[in-house]
Design brief:
The chain has 14 helices and twelve strands. The strands form two sheets. A seven-stranded mixed sheet has the order 1-7-6-5-4-2-3, with helices on both faces. Strands 8-9-12-11-10 form a five-stranded mixed sheet, covered by helices on one side. 37% of the residues lie in helices and 15% in strands. Helix 2 packs parallel to helix 9 and helix 12 packs across helix 14. The longest helix is centred in the C-terminal third of the chain and has 20 residues. It is of the alpha/beta class. Bound molecules: pyridoxal-5'-phosphate.
Length: 380
């Protein structure tokens, strides 16, 4: 079945007792045992909860993996994946990484003996050169933030297979609706479900899918041992959000295409990053492997003073962090999402004080364009 059908049906056949069309919220910590040495399959909600399980099976099916896992946040999911590695292990990582992931990798895991090298993962030679005898995995963002670089997951997975590395893909910006990384050879996908999957800026959650059943057992052991699981209410909200993933993204992508075109022709904009443009370096990869170009746009204005004007004078577009929800949000990466990256490093990546990032929502495209237009042309 196609993703649009799979998402709409998450949890649908769960409740065989009453036939409830949505999965119930099993707000319980523990489960009664029918007899000595017997279990209903559920013992304690950290180890397994039916509402969470419906979500976990949902993400596994969308990805085509053996198992899925739901965590309290995207960062909790990434932390859990790092338990697969040991002191002395090395990972090769996308350089323009999500700021929170960079902070986790730089400020916390080196204490436990993990090493990270950051490279431009759109450069296959740079990835190969960064691999050491102790390298165990590649951690790659399929579409990066905020510069929207596109990784060739098929080619990267082939390098990983050849060198015996795990290929872990943070596919938050694309979702399985737009790119299925297991089909391209990856081993693990991770999501901040807080973004497009839940999709309404109302839940923080993390999701992981694992292709191989043996590796999935290990990840389950870590999930249950460390315990950063997603609660039943938030699992339910995430399922409810995911049901409309395809229609939301169709609309968001359509809007993003129109806004990107409009920005490109605006005299006060000097650069637009949007993979839907034919001249974007990642355009052909997404055209070949994916089902769209996403709904994120980054752009540089001509002078720093324009930044504040746009952030504060847009009326429909909110100045807020996060992305992927139905409402259009704009953020200033230098100060918000990428504040934890050293200034020189940020500049080298192209994240400067002229750069704004738009997460395009499902509103009417013309209303959004009119809003940007009035903010651009306001005085002072
Ligand atoms: C938001 C985000 C994360 C972290 O997820 P949280 O749910 O905020 O903990 C990780 N990776 C990417 C690409 C993100 O956008």
């Amino acid at each position: 079945m196609k993703i649009a059908t799979e998402t709409a049906h998450i949890g649908l056949e769960w409740d065989t007792r009453t036939g409830a069309v949505t999965v119930p919220i099993y707000q319980t910590a523990t489960f009664r045992h029918p007899g000595l040495g017997q279990s209903t399959g559920y013992d304690y909600s950290r180890s397994g909860n039916p509402t969470r399980q419906a979500l976990e099976e949902g993400i596994a099916r969308l990805e085509g993996g053996a198992r899925g896992f739901a965590y309290a946040s995207g960062m909790a999911a990434i932390t859990n994946l790092l338990f697969l590695f040991q002191r002395g292990d090395h990972l090769v990582v996308t350089e323009d990484l999500y700021g929170g992931t960079y902070r986790l990798f730089e400020k916390i895991f080196p204490q436990y003996g993990l090493e990270f090298t950051y490279v431009d993962t759109t450069d296959l030679e740079a990835v190969k050169e960064a691999i050491r005898p102790t390298t165990r995995a590649l951690f790659v963002e399929s579409l990066t933030n905020p510069l929207l670089k596109v990784a060739d997951i098929g080619a990267l997975s082939a390098i990983c297979r050849e060198r015996g590395l795990l290929c872990i893909v943070d596919n938050t910006f694309l979702t399985p609706y737009l790119l299925r990384s297991f089909d391209l050879g990856a081993d693990i996908t991770i999501y901040s479900g807080s973004k497009y999957l839940a999709g309404h800026n109302d839940t923080v959650c993390g999701l992981v899918a694992v292709k191989d059943p043996v590796l999935a057992e290990k990840v389950y052991f870590h999930q249950n041992s460390a315990g950063a699981i997603l609660g039943p209410q938030d699992s339910w909200l995430t399922i409810r959000g995911m049901k409309t993933l395809s229609v939301r993204l169709d609309r968001q992508q359509e809007n993003a295409g129109k806004i990107a075109d409009w920005l490109r022709n605006h005299p006060l904009v000097q650069k637009v990053y949007y993979p839907g443009f034919a001249e974007h370096p990642g355009h052909d990869i997404l055209k070949r492997d994916g089902k769209g170009f996403g709904a994120m746009i980054s752009f540089e204005v001509k002078e720093p003073a324009m930044v504040e004007r746009l952030l504060l004078r847009t009326k429909l577009i909110s100045f807020a962090e996060s992305l992927g929800g139905v409402e259009t949000l704009m953020t200033f990466p230098v100060v918000q999402t990428h504040a934890d990256i050293e200034p020189e490093k940020r500049l080298k990546l192209g994240i400067n004080d002229l750069l704004l990032r738009l997460s395009v929502g499902i509103e009417d495209a013309q209303d959004l364009i009119d809003d940007l237009d009035q903010a651009f042309s306001s005085e002072g």
